[in-house]
Amino acid sequence: MDTRFSTAIHILIMIAGDPNPIASEKIAESVGTNASYIRKITSLLRKNGIIASHQGVEGFRLLVKPDELSLSRVYSALYNTDEVHLFDIHQNPSDKCIVGRHILPVLSDVFKEVERRAEDEMRETTLFDCMKKMRVLIDN
Amino acid sequence: MDTRFSTAIHILIMIAGDPNPIASEKIAESVGTNASYIRKITSLLRKNGIIASHQGVEGFRLLVKPDELSLSRVYSALYNTDEVHLFDIHQNPSDKCIVGRHILPVLSDVFKEVERRAEDEMRETTLFDCMKKMRVLIDN
What was the ipTM of the complex prediction? Predict the structure, then answer.
């Protein structure tokens, strides 16, 4: 399980919704993990200019407006790439067979197109969209 | 590494391109794996009505035309679902925090939309598209 992405969105919704700085311990309690895991993620978000530390107190504030912060940018901050990986490709096809000789670029090309569609959606979805969805749930 | 999907596409291109039945051993050699792994995958493709065994000789033939065989159907035959899984979600958010209490359906909803875009592309891409891409590579 790699929950960095879902955890980062959780953290960002908390930071966006609270005008006061929130300590990593409090975030960790809400996420259901430990504070050092939260710090690992906030450190990546900070390096990418998505959040900044508060002066003097522990906690963070958003540097990007929620409706301008795409999930694609969040993903990219965490994984150092905005290329989503969906499918593994077998790496030892035989050169002796015409299909084996040409399969790798075909698969890589086809899979890239699928992944690009996922990336498009992530680019079009913002933190604000997530907050709106949560608002609907809270209000109901 | 889970290379079932890429291996299945490799197998289907071989079957589609050869009028003669091809034994699992020959396919395995081209893929760069063992025949029992190939049989595991062809068995799933067979159960789903994508390929059928040849009578009397070992080997398979396509039951679906390449331009009607979507990658989504192939995926679904292999994984028994056409829902692509992209991101894991942390499973123990705290009920005591308003964000923790509502985060799971928000994340699941947002991730579903991303995954749906990937699935759309897989539904629109056929085995024939893969074969065309390979043809271009072979001809160049």
Answer: 0.93
